[in-house]
Amino acid sequence: MSSQNPSLNHDKDTVHKPSKEFSSKARISSMGAYRKLYKESIEKPNKFWAREAKELVWQKPWEKVLTWKAPHAKWFDGGKLNVCENCVDRHAAGPRKNKAAIIWEGEPGDKRVITYGQLQKDVCRFANVLLKNGVKAKDCVLIYMPMVPEAAIAMLACARIGAVHNVVFGGFAAEAIADRLEDSGAKVIVTADGGWRRGKVVALKPVVDEALTKSSQVTRVIVLNRCNNSIAMEPTRDVWWHDEVGTVSSKHIAKGFDSEHPLFVLYTSGSTGKPKGILHTSGGYLTGTYSTCKYIFDMRDEDVFWCTADVGWITGHSYIVYGPLANGVTQVMYEGAPNFPDFGRFWKMVEEYGVTIFYTAPTAIRAFIKAGNPFPEAHDLSSLRLLGSVGEPINPEAWNWYHKYIGGGKCPIVDTWWQTETGAILISPIPGATPCKPGTATLPFFGIDAAILDDAGKECKAGEDGRLVIRKPWPSMIRSIYGDKERFKKTYWSDYAGGIYSAGDGARRDKDGNFWIIGRLDDVLNVSGHRLGTAEIESALVSHPAVAEAAVVGRPDDMKGQAVAAFVTLKEEFVESENLRDELRNHVGKVIGAIAKPDDLHFAVGLPKTRSGKIMRRLLKELVCTGRISGNITTLEDGSVIDSLLRSIKR
Ligand code: PRX
């Protein structure tokens, strides 16, 4: 098992207890209170989740909290709700009408404040635009947008009319869009001319155009004018967002949909070359994101919450759009790069908007550490009361820096473990209660029966490594892999019998019961907190005419957590060269997106294979991590490839 979290001796870890000042005001203010509610929630999960769900607006009450025929769950069956009504209308109809829902800053410095009242109008208009363009309930809409409020508006408008959104991260390339289009069956795309990133316009519409050369299923592309960059419009297919919203009413009645009505599909990497469309539904997902915001971020009406993720990832779905808006807080949304014009950008914004809760990824924290303390020190960050981390294990050095330089030594840090599949945070400190140790996501959230099992299904003892599993269903859980029920069953529910969800992560618990996540057990890399399948990168590489075979493994990287190392054998007629190396790296960028470009690309005369022809990635991994191969190579088909591989990485 590869370890991204090498700290083994947890007895010596420093423990940070929440301050009295924080605890006294928190919803859950002691470990006693956490344990009591946790015990109740595990003994009677339906009671706990029903209480949480009742804080949402239901147009028709549910008949049954949970129907569980593993691995298929129905939460709040018989109930009807409108997710958008819960995130927007119920606030717009009351005292929050003129409260800022989204404070947005574009990278060039342009600013917008959208109140809940305004958000309601904007969302209703766009819902009417979707309807006008033929979108019906359960139709899929692909959203490929920069980080602008319209991305959230488009998602909420889909939810409002019962359409299923499929947000594709703006950094993905044309082929990745084309694959997702085909798999999701979307006929309408919402995009923008471009977005700002590091002082430049990153064009988006041309990428959509390229994706559409491979697909004829799309009948309408709605284009937001964000950057005024010159783009082509196909007159029978493409329309401008501003033209469309000008022709419709700002009123729309939010009708209730079944609790299990599909809300969105979001693609994520797995162990095959084809990304999986993770399907989430309405009532349970909203309950999970709402409740975790309430307890884990301890959200209050007066909070200003900032999650720095992109809406193209699950973190943006759950903790920019649905969770915080369901809680009616004000949040900050930012379009661009953290280091534009310099590494002080985030801290300037925290000071300017009085951010109280800040949620980011360890990879960003490590980049800030490298940039130097003067950046945060130049700003007044005293408004912050709580910090969060997500995406990968946070190394103690990053934890301590975050705590001292951003949190001023007074803010608890919630290290939140969860996945695209889990929909909401499942393991995390409860900030007014849980003593934190840098590097551990600590304890399970209410109603979450997390455990670590060995291969035989026995629970591991403290300090023993095993598989992280969840033994009871939870409301925001994945419902299926879009269009592939068998893959859904096989991927998550086949390691153990009896309806146990296997997360794909290795983990161990310390003697206090804290969960330490070690890393992925499958062929999935975690690069800067982003999931990348080695098989996807390999299939991108072999789609280049020069490549005969490719194998991809992860190697530890101080900044990114893991970096992508590729081994490539060329077809006879091609010769190794620096140009070809660059070309192949760029080719991966073109097929998947820049985040997947291999950091190292080694040419090899052959790849290590078993006699049955399986590539032994274990050896390649050892090679990139240690520069040696000491593992068992007796099953290798051709032992001589090892020498050539050793030479290739020294070059
Ligand atoms: O390996 C775990 C890691 O990220 C994976 C999930 O990736 P994704 O679906 O892209 O969602 C990321 C954002 C929720 C997990 O299987 N991971 C996520 N959070 C943590 C983590 N590893 C350790 N500690 C975390 N807090």
Explain what the structure shows.
There is one protein chain. With 651 residues, this protein is an alpha/beta fold. Helices cover 32% and strands 23% of the residues. The protein has a domain at 537-650: GMP Synthetase, Chain A, domain 3. It is built from 20 helices and 30 strands. The strands form nine sheets. It has a seven-stranded mixed sheet, with helices on both faces. The longest helix is centred in the N-terminal third of the chain and has 17 residues, at 116-132. The model is unreliable at 1-6 (pLDDT under 50). Adenosine-5'-monophosphate-propyl ester binds at residues 268, 314-315, 390-393, 415-420, 441, 503-505, 517, 520, 526, 531. Adenosine-5'-monophosphate-propyl ester binds next to α11, β20, β24 and β25.
Please tell me the overall pLDDT. 95
The secondary structure category is: alpha/beta
CATH class of the domain at 537-650: Alpha Beta
Task: Please provide the count of β strands.
Answer: 30
Largest sheet: 7 strands, mixed
Q: How is the CATH topology of the domain at 537-650 named? A: GMP Synthetase, Chain A, domain 3
Physical arrangement of strands within the biggest beta sheet: 5-4-17-16-18-19-20
The N- and C-terminal alpha carbons lie at a distance of 28 Å
Strand content: 15-25%
